[in-house]
Amino acid sequence: MQSRGTARGGHCGVAVYVNELIDRRKLLATMAGAGALAATSARAAPLSDWIAQTSPSASLPPLAPVPAPVQAPVDYLAVAKRQLALQSRNIHQSDRVGIVDFGLPSSRPRFALVDMVAGKIEMFPVTHGRGSDPQHDGWLKRFSNAPGSLASSRGAYRTSDYYWGSNGSSMRLAGLEPDNNNADMRAIVIHGAWYADPSLIATQGKLGRSEGCFVFGEELLPMVLYKLGPGRLLFADKLSVPPPVPPSAPFQMPPNDPLPGSENLIRTSAGTTIPKTAD
Q1: Measured between alpha carbons, how far is 199 from 100 in angstroms, rounded to an integer?
Q2: Which of 74, 138, 142, 145 has the fewest C-beta atoms under 10 angstroms from its C-beta?
Q3: Which has more pLDDT, 245 or 187?
Q4: Is residue 38 part of a domain?
């Protein structure tokens, strides 16, 4: 019996010793893990600084802002061809076409006189209606076909007969689309006036405003009336998208060559001095 007790006591001692040995190993492993973690953290701080310093993106300069795209100049010859095709039933004189680009301000030549035979384009300043530009900053804001709107109307017109009225020599227009079919009722015509003289661009940065008519400076009117003439297409719309292509040079008056029949044109402000500002 004694020997059995001794044997059992001996086994317990061995178990306690084994458990203590296991506990020491766990403790040593825990301490080693903590040391490794501390060493890793100590190395990670300077390592992250080194990565930031040597990263390719860290040494690159900041990106410059991307400039807004500039629209290519409008191909007025292509616009004229397309509109002639659409209005072939209404327009029988197709050798010349007038295109008014109301996407440009009144300080820029925006009436394109297109020679369809030679492929040549001449550009002239022209007004828009005061109802299209209430702020009078030189930019057309809206179109209207409503009587009393004093605004410009978009769309295709057929040039009609010459006449003499309160604005001197003028040319009637027939609106061919729902957007401008009140042109005759609204007395929308082509005429000349002092407030459309190109010299105003230098003094006030824009032309004056009409009541919806296409108004040219009186020195330019004879050329426009002669070259455009009755029975041809005049098309008006916003074609350029702001910001438009910068002008290459200020507008220059064309040569003052005498045109057949121009001696019969009557100017409303002949012999008067052109004011420096115009509404």
Answers
A1: 20
A2: 142
A3: 187
A4: yes
Domain holding 43, by residue range, is: 2-53
Mean pLDDT of 142-163: 97
Q: Is 237 in contact with 215 (CB distance < 8 Å)?
A: no
Instruction: Say if residue 41's pLDDT is above 60.
Output: no
CA distance to 4, 135, 151, 217, 275, per residue, from 279 (Å): 126, 11, 14, 14, 11
Q: What is the pLDDT of residues 115-134, one digit of tens each?
A: 999 999 999 999 999 999 99
271 in a domain, yes or no? Answer: no
How many domains would you assign to the chain? 2
Residue 71 lies in a domain: no
Strands 96-101 and 111-115: antiparallel
Q: Which CATH number does the domain housing residue 183 bear?
A: 2.40.440.10
Q: How far, CA to CA in Å, does 261 sit from each of 34, 134, 228, 265?
A: 105, 37, 14, 7
The one-letter amino acid at 140? L
